[in-house]
Amino acid sequence: MLINYNVCIVTVRQTYHLLEPIMRSRLLIYLILLPGVIHLSAQEVREFEFSVYGQYPVRGVEYTPVDSIAIAAGEKIVPPETIETHSLARMGTHSFRGGSIVTFVSKSSQEPVAQVKVPLISNKWLLIFVRNPLHLNDPGNQLKYLVYPFDDSSKNLPRNQLVFLNISGKELEGSPEAKRVKVNMGESEAITVRESMPISLWTRDFRGERLLPALIKTYQFQANHRYLMIFFPPVLRGSADLDVRFLSEKVP
């Protein structure tokens, strides 16, 4: 199933202000992730590698490492490859040759469950799976997962630095140490870390009147590592406490 991005984005924006605040937050997540499923027509063959991560475990899902575009260009057919996610670390590495669209399907039914458009800016990616908030009420037209393609290259996520990735549906503000930051939707700039660093982030309540603590914690960092902190929606509906995942990777 391919999604018409232009139609979807207009429809979601038209209904956004008519919804309850909690549903608005869910649709903000949808708007952030939806561009990753745009369909492109003519594609040149490219190759990239990726690992996977999910807010919740992804199981029973596979993809074809060589797509029809690559096969038409002379690549050999290869069997599907299974992916699965873990809550503590990236899983992979996987490879892909073809266009810029990767489709993931259920191993049991072969029905599409996720689809992502991978930008051309990098050949190393972390694909982050999030449950599609619109799937439950419209499973016939909505894929089970939305996928955020994070550029996992050393240029975008350097050694001894930290990047925030906010796909929580909430706008955040606060400070790592004494530096004041505003964490909007999507990725932040890389922040240089030291051995121990307090991070305090706040979000406004649904009325926009009060600041509520979303994350207050001191994190420990090691030399020659790089760090990605992902902000998912709160586990408890209506809570300000984010579901925070802290991914660390040792680099040369």
- Uncertain residue ranges: 1-24, 36-42
Distance between the termini: 41 Å
Which structural class should the secondary elements be placed in?
Answer: mainly beta
Main beta-sheet strand count, sense and barrel state: 5 strands, mixed
Beta-strand portion reads 35-45%
Helix content: 10-25%
CATH topology of the largest domain: Immunoglobulin-like
What Rg is obtained from the alpha carbons, in whole angstroms?
A: 19 Å
Q: How many E-type strands? A: 17
| CATH architecture group name of the largest domain | Sandwich
| Helix and strand sequence | HHEEHEEEEEEEEEEEEEEE
SS field, number of helical segments: 3
Judging from the principal axes of the Cα atoms, what is the shape?
globular
CATH level-1 class of the largest domain: Mainly Beta
* Mean model confidence by pLDDT: 84
Number of domains: 2
Question: Nutshell version of this structure?
Answer:
The strands form four sheets. Strands 9, 12, 13, 16 and 17 form a five-stranded mixed beta sheet that branches. Strands 4-1-7-8 form a four-stranded mixed beta sheet. The protein has a four-stranded antiparallel beta sheet with strand order 3-2-5-6, with no helix packed on it.
Which features characterize this protein?
252 residues, mainly beta, 2 domains, four-stranded mixed β-sheet, 3 helices, 17 strands, 12% helix
SSE topology sketch:
Layout: H1 5-16, H2 21-33, E1 46-54, E2 61-63, H3 68-72, E3 81-83, E4 91-98, E5 101-106, E6 112-117, E7 124-131, E8 145-151, E9 161-166, E10 172-176, E11 181-183, E12 186-187, E13 191-192, E14 196-204, E15 211-220, E16 225-232, E17 243-250
Parallel strand pairs: 1-7, 9-16
Antiparallel strand pairs: 1-4, 2-3, 2-5, 5-6, 7-8, 9-12, 9-13, 10-11, 10-14, 14-15, 16-17
